[in-house]
# Entry
Amino acid sequence: MEKAYADAFEYIRKQYADEPEIGIVLGTGLGALVDQIEQEKVIPYNFIPHFPISTVDSHFGRLIFGRLGGRRVVAMQGRLHFYEGYSMQELTFPIRIMAMLGIHTLLISNAAGGLNPAYRNGDMMVLDDHINLQHANPLIGPNNPNFGPRFPDMSRPYDPQLIDRVLSLAAEQGVRMHKGIYVGVTGPNLETRAEYRMLRQLGGDVVGMSTVPEVLVARHMDLRVCAVSVVTDECYELDNLQPITLDHVIGVANAAEPQMTAIFAALVPELSAPEPKAS
# Structure
């Protein structure tokens, strides 16, 4: 994989010389933030050597470089999922590349099903922790010490200061924002009633099919991480559970898009590089 990383890095660096500070992964129906970016370079995934291509109809597949609130950013417009058939290493390939390009912070958005009965369609949740039920891990295999340690700590995968700031921004903007636990599953099927019940009993507040692999790799490479879910369906009235369609998920996510965009656009200008850790 090292040659693949090097080839992709060198191709992108020749196309765009500036070092991005912040990486942004935009999930289902949450791509409008790119309209806020002063775009300087757009690179389709299929132009980049070894770069995986998103197969989800609702996702674009391109890296967008530019500035947002004065910060240099790179946004993934179209994320990858384990259920598309990629290995964990392949679907997290873009996160490795963004870290190699220079980002110090990774922001992630996703659409998720609400397990917590206090959550409503269109609510948001900033991730405080996650439960990995994807039965795989992108860190399995030989470890590259240039990327990070063999056994990275995951006691706080999501940056507490960024969590607090997102909660404050949401309160200022009148957005219903919760703090909770994301359960990562493989998909692509949605869960059974028994599975929803189990996931809630395990402590999950929302469930989704992404995010966890990206976070594991980002923390392995010592990036600060902040992730926000949009609740696109209510999965707790199990005796009256209705079938869920992609159109419904995208519709709810699109309705929440202006609020998500406003929060990210307000957060990004504040994201200076963290202080170096004491040796």
User: Anything to note?
Assistant: The longest strand covers residues 224-234. Residues 104 and 276 are 11 Å apart (CA to CA). The chain has one domain: 2-142+174-270.
